[in-house]
Specification:
447 residues; alpha/beta; four-stranded mixed β-sheet; 16 helices; 38% helix; 16% strand; globular
Length: 447
């Protein structure tokens, strides 16, 4: 097997978060500080608590992922970022009301010391928010260059060799791919001419790639997946990943839809509705931002069920998604799913799922895993779209010549096999010999 060389994670890793004062970011940060003090466990984090099988089942070799691949240590993470509100992360966390006083106090000193840089913001793209702490510039190109300056200054201030940038800010209004997104030259010209199809998230993405920093898009907005930026990432040797953190209802869909397909049960309709009351819910109350989220959530089932291959089962189902802003719930999101299915001889059946979840609690470990895996990818000389990270996204980025993979279990297998390949171990096939002697050229591990 060809040997893979991975740069060691020596020194500190800078983490720059767009939306530093948001509920997800402050929940993530408070958790990291508590975990580092031994006051909490990293529940939900694949990099910290997950294991990976190496070799055959009979080998009984299941190391922790963090002991198998050379990930950056939590002690080596240095945090910063941008926001549109001039307040400390502690003040922002108090406002978000995700964590109780005990958990906030466990990280109070660190959160009070963290304050964002001015963000790039334009209310035309997020109608329900107002930015009071924002950068100014004559053109979008000027603003992008100021973001680049921030990244450089952050690296210099903390003597950093490596930085990862992650978007954990609000969903922007729906923007389809247009001519300005197709090539690097067109995109640069568009920034200089303030093209309306270039959003703030795209400026962050371009700036990060230009500075050699892996970029992760945690929202459903058209951001780093603009073709010009993907091509630029390949040119610069920078890994990029996205989009839209897969936390609540869509996480459930990527489990239930594969079950229906595996058992060849038909689908008549899938109705999904959500209520949430945090800033994300307020932003999504705007039709433009909701359209962006809707596109992300609606694409999942079709990709898994493949109605073109199974027309008798999935050719004519009805799929509806609703998101309702309901302030009393705050960050405690609730999702209802009514699923009408049919089985043998066409007899109808139903599934009903009620997921009472906590949005930021589910997203925080995803943020950690994506940061550490993106840094690993960069040190492993991986570039462009990182499809192996699709496990964490509602609408995973993919090469234009392949269909996206949404099945949660296939996504997990893809991720772990990628890690095995990086460490020069054979991928797992989950085949049994069943008494038959198999002859194959490629090295693979059988159960």
């Amino acid at each position: 097997m060809e040997s893979n060389i991975i740069e060691k994670p020596d020194g500190k890793l800078g983490v720059l978060i767009v939306g530093l004062n948001g509920a997800i970011s402050t929940t993530f940060l408070a958790g990291i500080y508590a975990i580092k003090k031994g006051l909490a466990k990293p529940i939900g984090s694949l990099t910290q608590m997950g294991t990976i099988r190496i070799g055959k089942r009979s080998d009984n070799n299941f190391p922790l992922i963090k002991d198998f691949v050379p990930l950056a240590s939590l002690d080596d993470l240095v945090f910063g970022g941008w926001d549109i509100r001039d307040e400390t992360c502690y003040e922002a966390a108090k406002y978000a009301k995700v964590l109780n006083d005990t958990d906030l106090n466990n990280a109070a000193e660190e959160l009070k010391s963290l304050k964002p840089m001015k963000g790039v913001f334009d209310q035309n793209y997020v109608k329900r928010l107002t930015g009071t702490y924002v950068k100014e510039g004559k053109t979008k190109y000027d603003l992008m260059m100021k973001i680049r300056d921030d990244i450089k200054s952050f690296k210099e201030l903390h003597s950093l060799h490596r930085v990862v940038v992650i978007w954990a800010a609000s969903t922007e209004t729906f923007i389809p791919v247009s001519a300005v997104h197709q090539t690097k030259d067109a995109f640069i010209e568009g920034m200089k001419k303030n093209d309306p199809d270039i959003t703030p998230s795209m400026l962050y993405a371009y700036a990060a790639v230009a500075e050699g920093a892996p970029y992760i898009n945690g929202s459903p907005s058209l951001s780093v997946d603009a073709p010009a930026i993907v091509d630029f990432a390949n040119e610069m040797g920078v890994p990029v990943a996205g989009k839209d953190f897969k936390t609540g209802q869509t996480l459930v869909k990527t489990v239930i839809a594969p079950m229906l397909k595996a058992r060849l049960l038909g689908l008549s309709g899938w109705f999904s509705t959500n209520i949430l009351g945090n800033r994300d819910g307020e932003v999504l109350d705007d039709p433009g931002s909701f359209k962006t989220k809707e596109e992300s959530k609606l694409s999942v089932i079709d990709s898994i069920l493949q109605p073109d291959l199974y027309p008798d089962l999935y050719d004519n189902y009805y799929h509806k998604v609703r998101i309702n802003y309901y302030p009393p719930r705050g960050d405690n999101k609730e999702g209802w799913d009514n699923i009408d299915i049919f089985g043998w001889l066409g007899y109808p059946m139903q599934l009903k799922i009620n997921f009472l979840c906590r949005d930021s609690i589910l997203a925080a470990p995803i943020v950690l895993d994506l940061i550490l895996f993106a840094d690993l990818a960069k040190r492993s000389n991986m570039k462009g779209i990182q499809e192996w990270m699709s496990l964490f996204f509602k609408s995973p980025m993919h090469s234009p010549d392949v269909v996206p993979e949404h099945d949660l279990f296939i996504q997990m297998m893809k991720l772990k096999n990628t890690l095995r390949r990086l460490m020069n171990e054979s991928p797992i096939t989950h085949l049994d010999t069943n008494g038959v002697e198999h002859r194959i050229e490629e090295l693979e591990c059988y159960d």
